[in-house]
Amino acid sequence: MHQCFHIFWTLANTIAISSLATMKQFVIIAALVAVALASDRPYYPKPAYYPKPAYPSPAYPAADGYDYAPMPYSFDWAVLDQASYNDFGHKETSDGNVVTGTYYVVLPDGRRQVVTYKADDYGYVADVKYEGEATYPEYKPSYPAYPKPAYAPPAYPKPAYPTPAYPKPTYAPPAYPKASYPEPSYPSYPRPSYPAYPRPAYPSYPRPSYPSYPKPSYPVSTTTEVVTETAAPVVKEAEVAVEAVAVTEPVSETAVAAAEPIAEPETSTDAV
């Protein structure tokens, strides 16, 4: 093997150096190298297997022996069990060539499913119908009523033990010695005395007097107005009456000055 690789390496270097080598020469050399490598592998002969066992073919009787003429038949059966809610049946009839029949079953929703079918050389044809209306009633299980077992209460004998008598303990009340402490004495203080201050005297001022001015009087208009309505003289008399009420006597200044002054109220400032 080592010699073959050495030969391949030498030929490859020779081809790389030579500028006249072509691709065809390189392929030929590679093929020769592959043949040389293959010739170094050991040759193993093809393993010999055991011969295939030869079993005789089974011999079946001729099919003609099972060909019978078609025979008519008919059957009918049904199952009805109210406790388990089973209600179904099947009925079929054949004349030897055509098979017709029907079967039914009561579904859990209350409907009745009926299938009518026909089978012949052309195939199987079925017609499915549903009778009734689907209902879904509430399931209320019914349980058998078993009588309540009556057990007699067990009678246990009462044990006869004498009632124990325990003596009542007598304890003398504990005597604690009285502590002899001197009674505390607290000092007595005299009642405090506060000085008495004289009541303050405030000066009285005379009541101020203000001058009185007479109410001004205005001259009455002398212009004559044309009376157009009967109610005008009534309005004029009312105005004259208002002016007469408004004119009062003036207040003299001497009367105001003679008024006595009003003294202010005195406050109590007695000492506590």
What does this structure look like?
By secondary structure, the protein is α+β, with helices and mostly antiparallel strands. Helix content is 19%, strand content 16%. Strand 2 (86-94) and strand 3 (99-106) form a beta hairpin. Helix 1 (2-17) packs antiparallel against helix 2 (23-39). The two termini are 144 Å apart.
Secondary-structure blueprint:
Blueprint (H helix, E strand, L loop, with lengths): L1 H16 L5 H17 L33 E9 L4 E9 L4 E8 L5 E9 L2 E9 L100 H15 L6 H5 L15
Antiparallel strand pairs: 1-2, 2-3, 3-4, 4-5
Structural category is alpha+beta
Q: Uncertain segments of ≥5 residues (pLDDT<50)?
A: 226-272
Number of helices: 4
Instruction: Please outline the major beta sheet.
Output: 5 strands, antiparallel
How many strands appear in the DSSP assignment? 5
Which percent range fits the helix content?
A: 10-25%
**Lateral arrangement of strands in the main beta sheet:** 1-2-3-4-5
User: Rg from C-alpha positions?
Assistant: 76 Å
| SSE sequence, one letter per element | HHEEEEEHH
Organism: Daphnia magna
Keywords: Cuticle, Membrane, Transmembrane, Transmembrane helix
Transmembrane segments: 15-38
Protein name: Cuticle protein
Q: Which structural traits does this protein have?
A:
five-stranded antiparallel sheet; 4 helices; disordered C terminus
